[in-house]
Amino acid sequence: MYIRRMFINGEWIKSHNDRTRDIINPFNQEVIATAAEGDKATAQEAVNAARIAFDSGDWRNISATERGKLIFKVADFIERDKEELAELETLDTGKTIAESRADMDDIAGVFRYYAGLADKDGGEVIESPIPNSSSKVVREPIGVCAQITPWNYPLLQASWKIAPALAAGNTVVLKPSEITPLTTIKVTELIEEAGIPNGVFNLVLGAGDTVGQELVDNKMVDLVSFTGGIHTGKKIMKAAADSMKNIALELGGKNPNIVFADADLETALDQALNAAYFHAGQVCCAGSRLIVEDKIHDSFVSQLAERVKKIKLGNGFDETTQSGPMISAEHREKVESFVAIGKQEGATLLAGGERPDSPELQKGFFYRPTIFTDCTTDMEIVQEEVFGPVLTVERFTTKDEAIQLANDSIYGLAGAVWTENMLKANHVAAELRMGTVWINDFHPYFAQAPWGGYKQSGIGRELGKPGIEEYTEVKHIFLNTKPEPIYWFK
Ligand SMILES: NC(=O)c1ccc[n+]([C@@H]2O[C@H](COP(=O)([O-])OP(=O)(O)OC[C@H]3O[C@@H](n4cnc5c(N)ncnc54)[C@H](O)[C@@H]3O)[C@@H](O)[C@H]2O)c1
Ligand SMILES: C[N+](C)(C)CC=O
Fold it and tell me: Which positions fall inside the Aldehyde dehydrogenase domain (predicted)?
């Protein structure tokens, strides 16, 4: 049996006890691969390798231009192997092949962007207030970075971490979600092929509460960068405090999509569907809270329901499929329990709310796109991140009410506002307490623009310039050009 292995210090290794995990296709529950299942000891080995590689200085001290060249090579290889990577992502997550191809383009773009940024920060000379001196501020790599990623955008989320960390001169131990490791394993092969030195990038596989927890606890790790759920994020933050590690947290969202009556309603409606149901709603920035102006609420929602009922569920490899399955049986059950809560709370179920009955979908973890109307902000279904194809709808009459509803959340990841009135749009955008606000659009994210959350959606930023700065320490170097005795202690 071919076992996908972990990569530590330039070697592809199995787990100590030969434990493995089957990787399942969520469309039909077939085993698509078997992966080594690491344990605490494997995580420790990987951290040791990353520590030695960092302390040796071989990676952080080569020129940033050289590091950039190697990272450009990884981008080239991702483009070369795009179709294989996209197929693996669809097999592993169930997302449509068109989505996976788009992800691969984004991922190559992220590697290119950070490869290009690698040698662009030469530090800054600052004005020293002390005579006969000069001061400069430089950014240095932070050290050994543990990176932990989720299952919904497996390689995309990994790329946001790997590319800037390596470009800045750090060494890395990455643990992908145990459910969806395949594309991350493949990219590790590409990192090896690009010639990035041994020990600089290490891949460990396995469960969060063993392998992941060790990465967070290990005192040789300098930074933990985590993308995943809020509950895991809180655990990681608490554990990291013990050794005062730097942390970067990209967590969940419950993202409002505000539609004013003066919007281009055809576009707003079309994009409200995309916002809520893209990748079966398993998206951190899914527009899962629709907030619609009273005047248009009834007609907007009834048209939306008609469109929702036509969404074609199916195999991600079928080019006519519009949405794939949920990632797992457990996750679908979680979504179902939220729908039950919504009903108990008195929300009106307008569409979906059940598994599809077509015979060809019975082996997959499918759930029909769902709409709840008559929702209020005190409902759990409005406040909790369901992370599935479930949309709640609230109504408002004034702009201030729309802002107040949208901000009434522990989360602050992203949101959108739809109106043709740019004064109003800009006012609402300024008032929303979120890391990203889209005006007359939903979902765009790209390498150049920072991504991250306000409030409990996270700490720190990925992408853009802040996405590489997160992987650096700032050092002030002061030079006395005319040293003299002070005679304080005579
Ligand atoms: N903000 C963003 O950019 C963003 C992007 C993608 C996903 N997400 C969020 O991710 C969540 C879905 O992903 P998930 O279900 O894989 O999340 P999760 O928190 O269950 O798992 C994420 C990762 O953490 C690991 N993990 C679990 N327990 C751990 C522990 N104790 N110590 C260390 N690691 C541990 C898991 O093995 C996995 O690799 C959603 O909440 C979604 O909003 C956020
Ligand atoms: C930010 N994004 C959309 C890539 C992944 C969120 O789950």
Answer: 12-477
| DSSP, res 261 | T
Computed on alpha carbons and rounded to an integer, the radius of gyration of the chain in Å comes to: 24
Per the document, the length of the chain is: 490
Between CA 425 and CA 422 the distance in angstroms is 5
pLDDT of 329-372, one tens digit each?
999 999 999 999 999 999 999 999 999 999 999 999 999 999 99
Determine the structural domain holding residue 73 and report its residue range.
Answer: 6-251+457-476
Residue 410 lies in a domain: yes
The complex's ipTM? 0.98
Q: Which two tokens stand for residue 331?
A: 């996750």
User: Is 123 within the bounds of a domain?
Assistant: yes
Give the Å distance between the CA of 428 and the centre of ligand 2.
23
Q: At residue 336, what is the residue type?
A: E
Considering only CA atoms, which residue is closest to atom 35 of ligand 1? Answer: 208
Q: Tell me, what CATH number does 95's domain have?
A: 3.40.605.10
User: Do 241 and 103 sit in the same domain of this protein?
Assistant: yes
Could you tell me the pTM of the whole model? 0.98
The answer to whether the CB of 220 falls within 8 A of the CB of 48 is yes
